[in-house]
Amino acid sequence: MRGRGISILSLALPVLAGIAYLALTGAPQSYALMNALAVLLASAAVLFLPGIESEQARRVLVVALITGLFVPLASGPYVNGIARWLPLGGFILHSGALLFPAITVLAARDEDYAPPILLAALLAASLQPDAALGLAVMLAAVGLYNATRDWRLVPVAGIAFFASMVAGLRGELPAQPHVERILVHLAMTMPLAAFALALVLLASFFMMAHAIAAPKPVRHALAGSLFGFSLAALVSNYPSVLIGYGAAPILGYGLALALARQTSSG
Q1: Residue 264: what pLDDT?
Q2: Distance of CA 69 to the CA centre of its chain
Q3: What does the alpha-carbon distance between residue 9 and residue 238 come to, in Å, rounded to a whole number?
Q4: pLDDT digit string (tens) for 139-148?
Q5: What is the distance between the alpha carbons of residues 31 and 178, in angstroms, rounded to a whole number?
Q6: For the range 115-121, what are the long-range contacts, defined as Cβ-Cβ under 8 Å and sequence gap of 24 or more?
Q7: Do the beta carbons of residue 132 and residue 233 sit within 8 Å?
Q8: Per-residue pLDDT tens over the stretch 45-73
Q9: pTM attached to this predicted model
Q10: What is the structure's pLDDT at 2?
Q11: Which of 103-107, 129-133, 170-174 has the lowest mean pLDDT?
């Protein structure tokens, strides 16, 4: 139970800080309520989702999640030729932030197929295009290499770096208030608040990398993906995951943390 508590803390800490930011900056009340509901659902996933012991079942799941990354290309919606969102009911969720954290965990648990799993996610990022997903793939590969020293991850990281640069040139949209580039915009008006929010996000990164109950490759890859998404939000108009408005990354990292602690195998 202690391990699950640390996993929940690593997720809830930046989300709760983000909710405080939303209230402080006058965001619509529905934004804070949506993030609060998402973190409750994500925490429930960490606590109650059943374990996946079978390697075959984990591979079936990762194929399903990777397929989900390509769904926006068929379903839309398209905005200026960009399709990176999943329409689910009345909600539009960022597919990379929702699905890639769990893909990262499953890749880290599959030594044989980790590089092709990450490359498949990178292909989706290139087609959407989505530089944030590309950077998340790159730094997940870096984190996984740091833990395993698997040389095959080096070209994956290099390819992801160049693919992210290309996607960034092709796929930038105007920044959405309270969603994207939060730390950059907040630093211009409330630098101390921006610094505090950055520290909380950094604490989440270190908890994922070193404190959650999961094997080292899983911890480092998952933390790398968080760093990649966060880096994208600093350098371009991409969602500030966990601290900004948006249920997709909260649910995505909740599922990933649930998968990360489920078994010691893989």
Answers
A1: 43
A2: 13
A3: 24
A4: 999 999 999 9
A5: 9
A6: 115/141, 115/150, 115/152, 115/153, 115/156, 117/62, 117/66, 118/144, 118/153, 118/156, 118/160, 119/156, 119/159, 120/66, 121/66, 121/69
A7: yes
A8: 999 988 788 999 999 999 999 999 999 99
A9: 0.94
A10: 64
A11: 170-174
Q: Residue written as tokens 């068929």?
A: 74
175 or 12: which leads in pLDDT: 12
| CA angle in degrees (0–180, nearest 5) for 64-252-121 | 45
CA pair distance 33, 215, nearest whole angstrom: 33
Tokens 């290099």 sit on residue: 158
3-state secondary structure (DSSP) of residue 104:
helix
List the one residue out of 221, 253, 194 whose CA is nearest residue 25.
194
Residue 123 pLDDT exceeds 90: yes
Which segments of the chain are extended strands (E)? 85-88, 91-94
Tokens 């960022």, located at residue: 94
> Vertex 199, ends 244 and 49: CA angle to 5°?
60
- Rounded Cα distance between 170 and 148, Å, is 33
Q: Is the pLDDT of residue 79 over 90?
A: no
Residue 14 CA to residue 129 CA, distance in Å, equals 27
Rounded CA separation 223/260 (Å)? 12
Residue-level pLDDT at 266: 35
In whole angstroms, what is the distance from residue 155 CA to residue 38 CA?
35
Task: Please state, in angstroms and rounded to a whole number, the distance separating the CA atoms of residues 120 and 100.
Answer: 11
Residue closest to 233 by CA, chosen among 197, 193, 192, 189: 197
- Phi, psi of 88, rounded to the nearest 5 degrees: -125, 105
Strand partners, 94: 85
pLDDT at 265 over 70: no
Cis amide bond preceding 129, omega within 30? yes
